[in-house]
Amino acid sequence: MAFFIRWLKAASFLETKTLILDASSYIGGHLFARLGTERAVATYYRNPVGNVVYFDALSMSLSEVVKKTQDITHAVILIGDTKPDSCASDIRKSHALNVESIISIIKFLKERHIKPVFTSTESVFDGIKGSYVETDEVNPILLYGRQKLEIERYLQDYTVDFTILRLSKVYGVSPGDGTIFTSWLEQIQRNETILCSYDQVYSPIYVEDVVDGIIKAIDTGAGGIFHLSGNKPYKRIEMLEMLLSIASEFILQPVNVVRCSINDFGLLEKRPLNVSMVNDKIVKAMGLVPSDARELCSGMIKKFYTNGAMEYR
Ligand SMILES: NC(=O)c1ccc[n+]([C@@H]2O[C@H](COP(=O)([O-])OP(=O)(O)OC[C@H]3O[C@@H](n4cnc5c(N)ncnc54)[C@H](OP(=O)(O)O)[C@@H]3O)[C@@H](O)[C@H]2O)c1
Predict the structure, then answer these.
(1) Could you give the CA distance from residue 86 to residue 143 in angstroms, rounded to a whole number?
(2) Is the distance from the beta carbon of residue 56 to the nearest atom of ligand 1 less than 6 Å?
(3) In this predicted model, what pLDDT tens digit does every residue of 164-196 receive, in sequence order?
(4) 228, 166 in Cβ contact below 8 A?
(5) How many domains does the chain have?
(6) Is residue 312 domain-resident?
(7) Is residue 263 part of a domain?
């Protein structure tokens, strides 16, 4: 039924749109930049970005934001407390945002026949096996992962038409984006010691590939669970060594790297060690072509050292 109504909307030559919840998230900003106001309507919470509507998931209903006449076919749910330690430090607060508010969003979307595209995480796994596929058993050891899993289960139990994208660690190549490569480059520039774990493994994915994956999930109508991850598993230290080897021709001073376990960082909860995921299902089903991390890193470093630290976009 929901699928039929969405098909009718899309086939009725009315302009159909995707709702981005919200566009001030790191991924949502990139998604909104790609879809534009032609194909998307978007919300923000604390940080307005142009052409977006205010929405506080904790105190508002989506009905205050989405008009009945708007032809929205999909909603990409990106809202959340996305930092494991922040979730663990205030369990009630993170549960209210990551679970309760997302459930009421999903209920509203179901009433309006809008398909949810929910962004979950590699943290639904315990990190013992690694190279996880979609059918592997989940067993989150982080509260953040348990909260995401609660939504995955809610979607599976109470809706028939949904897409769950389990994202691995996302990185970008823009100055100040706070992701893994850019943060290291900026630390090197400031001559800081870099603490880097040797025992955490994941399959990092470029933010524009995440956007591709989300758009393909919408355009192909693919439903179910997909692992939206890069092609290769990396230890964090291997990514740093890759960056240092590519940057070696430009770096004049020695870089002080201290290798440690991810669980030496004094984090509130023990981290799962190998949360690498296999992306074969999404690659086959949607034709996603994830970028090569080395190539992206190399392009970013060249721009960083030739155009100046602040202009390597
Ligand atoms: N980035 C990754 O590496 C990664 C990996 C795995 C999964 N994911 C998942 O992908 C999604 C997007 O990730 P991201 O890194 O782009 O997230 P993010 O930058 O941390 O953004 C989280 C968003 O939640 C919004 N928010 C917080 N409280 C809110 C409230 N009360 N009402 C409405 N919005 C509220 C924030 O709004 P303000 O900015 O306005 O405060 C922010 O835009 C998340 O669900 C995350 O769990 C991300």
Answers:
(1) 10
(2) yes
(3) 999 999 999 998 999 999 999 999 999 999 999
(4) yes
(5) 1
(6) no
(7) no
